[in-house]
Design a protein that fits this description.
- The chain has helices at 46-54, 93-103, 108-121, 137-150, 167-184, 195-201, 223-228, 233-238, 240-264; strands at residues 4-15, 18-30, 35-39, 61-66, 69-70, 78-81, 155-159, 187-192, 204-209, 214-220.
- The protein has a six-stranded mixed beta sheet with strand order 6-7-8-3-9-10, sandwiched between helices.
- The chain folds into two domains: 4-77 and 155-264, P-loop containing nucleotide triphosphate hydrolases (Rossmann fold), CATH 3.40.50; 88-152.
- By secondary structure, it is of the alpha/beta class.
- The structure holds adenosine-5'-triphosphate and magnesium ion (MG).
- Residues 13, 15, 20, 22, 40, 42-48, 193 line the site of adenosine-5'-triphosphate (ATP).
- Residues 13, 15, 20, 22, 40, 42-48, 193 line the site of adenosine-5'-triphosphate.
Length: 265
C-alpha cells in the first residue's frame, strides 16, 4: 500500500490585498492504516493543506506524492469528506452513495449493492431510500462517509467532518470513524480544531501554528488504538493521561498564538 507524502510544502495565495503565505515548509506523511490528525486554530492553513493533498490546489513550493507519484489533481485513490456534507439533497441516500460509482461507469446492479453495503457499514441500513432532506445532520454525515468509502479509496481526507454535530452525535461519529478505519485499513488524514477529538482519533497528531501555517509539534498517540482494542470511549477520555495531554496541547496552542501575535506586532 502506498504512502501519501507531503514534502516541504508551501502555499501562498495572491489576492487583491497582497500575498498570504498560508503554509510554509510543511512535511507530513500519511501511511496506510494510520490516522494523522492536523490540529490548529482557525486560519492556520489546515484546509489549504487538505486541498493540496486532494489535488484541488497546486503548491507554490514542495510536493505531494502518493507512492512516490506526484499528485497533479483529484483522483479516486483519495476521497474527501467535507465539513458540510456536500450531498445532493433531492436524491436518496443510496443514490448519493452510488453517484461516484456511476461516474466510474459501474453498472446499476453493482452500484446498488455497493451503496447498500456501505450504508449498512455506517449504520444506515433501512435508510437507503430516504431523501437527504429527510435526514438529521448526523445521518447526513454518515451518508457522506459512505459515499467517500464507496469508491474504495486508499486514503480518506476529512476536513472538520464532525464540526457541525452536537456533542453526543459527534462522539458517536468519532467511534464510527475509528471502527471504519479499523475495518477498512485506509490511511486517514483528518482536520479538527477540537483538541479532545484530535487526541481520541489520532494515531499521529500534528499541531499547526498560524502566520504562516507550519507544523510546530508532532505526537504519536495511543488512544485510538486503545478504543479499537475494546476500551470504552468515556474511560479513555477521562484517563489522567488523556486529560494531561489535552492540557499540554491547549497550552501549546496558546503559547504558539501568543508567539505569532508578538511576531506580527
Ligand atoms: N482562496 C484564498 N485566497 C486568499 N487567501 C486565502 C484563500 N484561502 C485561504 N486563505 C487564507 O489562508 C490562510 C489559511 O486558510 P485555511 O482555510 O487553510 O485555514 P484553516 O486552518 O482551514 O481555517 P479554519 O479552521 O477556519 O477552517 C488564512 O489566512 C486564509 O485567510
Ligand atoms: Mg478550514
Amino acid at each position: 500500500m502506498p504512502v501519501l507524502s507531503v514534502d516541504h510544502l508551501s502555499v501562498t495565495y495572491r489576492g487583491k490585498r497582497g500575498a498570504v503565505t498560508a503554509l510554509a515548509d510543511v512535511s507530513v506523511e500519511v501511511p496506510p492504516s494510520e490516522i494523522v490528525v492536523a490540529l490548529g486554530a482557525s486560519g492556520c492553513g489546515k484546509s489549504t493543506l487538505l486541498n493540496v493533498m486532494a489535488g484541488f490546489l497546486k503548491p507554490s513550493a514542495g510536493s505531494v506524492t502518493v507512492g512516490g507519484v506526484p499528485v497533479t489533481g483529484p483522483g479516486t485513490d483519495r476521497a474527501v469528506v467535507f465539513q458540510d456534507d456536500a450531498l445532493m439533497p433531492w436524491l436518496s441516500a443510496e443514490d448519493n452513495v452510488a453517484f461516484g460509482l456511476q461516474m466510474r461507469g459501474i453498472g446499476q446492479a453493482e452500484r446498488r449493492a455497493a451503496a447498500r453495503d456501505m450504508l449498512a457499514q455506517v449504520g444506515l441500513e433501512g435508510f437507503a431510500g430516504h431523501a437527504i432532506h429527510e435526514m438529521s445532520g448526523g445521518m447526513r454525515q454518515r451518508v457522506g462517509l459512505a459515499r467517500a468509502l464507496a469508491v474504495k479509496p486508499d486514503f480518506l481526507l476529512m476536513d472538520e467532518p464532525l464540526g457541525a454535530l452536537d456533542e453526543l452525535t459527534r462522539e458517536r461519529m468519532q467511534m464510527l470513524v475509528l471502527n471504519l478505519w479499523q475495518r477498512s485499513g485506509k490511511g486517514i488524514f483528518l482536520i479538527t480544531h477540537s483538541i479532545e477529538e484530535a487526541l481520541f482519533l489520532a494515531t499521529r497528531l500534528v499541531l499547526l501554528s498560524p502566520r504562516p501555517g507550519r507544523i510546530v509539534q508532532r505526537y504519536e498517540t495511543g488512544f485510538a488504538r486503545r478504543f479499537i482494542a475494546g476500551e470504552p470511549v468515556r474511560a479513555i477520555k477521562a484517563d489522567p493521561e488523556f486529560v494531561a495531554m489535552r492540557e499540554e496541547l491547549s497550552n501549546a496552542i496558546l503559547a504558539n498564538e501568543e508567539q505569532a501575535l508578538t511576531h506580527v506586532g
